[in-house]
Amino acid sequence: MLDGVQDRVQNRMNGETYDETIMDEVIQTVTDRLCLRLGVTEDTFPDVFKSVVVDASVKVWRQRYYEGIKTEWNASLKNEFVTDILAEYQDEIDQWLNSAAADQSGNRKVVRFL
């Protein structure tokens, strides 16, 4: 897993109770999905996206018991979760993919159809 991410998640949770084993799995899942979108491996994961891993992991944890909910009304309170946590970061992902930093990584996988 990414160095320092667990500590940053713990700081972000700020005293909230959570299971570290499950949170490690959440962090790994978010990291894997970001690697797929960025076209990198975990070994070449861009440091700039560690903040996205922290942010998205905390969001996933907080939605855990409401997994799959789309809309729920309770008096005047409405819960509606995003189905794709990483969609919020798509602009940053696209900017990185189009940047020189992505080109310099040298480890992006490219698929070309002939």
Could you describe the 3D structure shown?
The chain is mostly helical and 114 residues long. It has one domain (5-88). It is built from 5 helices and 2 strands. It has helices at residues 5-13, 20-38, 50-63, 90-97, 100-105, and strands spanning 72-74, 77-79. It has a two-stranded antiparallel ribbon with strand order 1-2. Strand 1 and strand 2 (77-79) form a beta hairpin. The relative contact order is 0.16. The model has no long low-confidence stretch (mean pLDDT 81).
List the helices and strands and how they pair.
Elements: H1 5-13, H2 20-38, H3 50-63, E1 72-74, E2 77-79, H4 90-97, H5 100-105
Antiparallel strand pairs: 1-2
Largest sheet: 2 strands, antiparallel
Q: What's the mean pLDDT score?
A: 81
Order of helices and strands: HHHEEHH
Question: Tell me, what's the shape?
Answer: globular
User: What is the strand tally?
Assistant: 2
* Tally of separate helices: 5
**Radius of gyration computed on alpha carbons:** 16 Å
> What's the end-to-end separation, in Å?
36 Å
Q: Tally the structural domains.
A: 1
What percent of residues are in strands? 5-15%
Question: What structural category arises from helix and sheet content?
Answer: mainly alpha
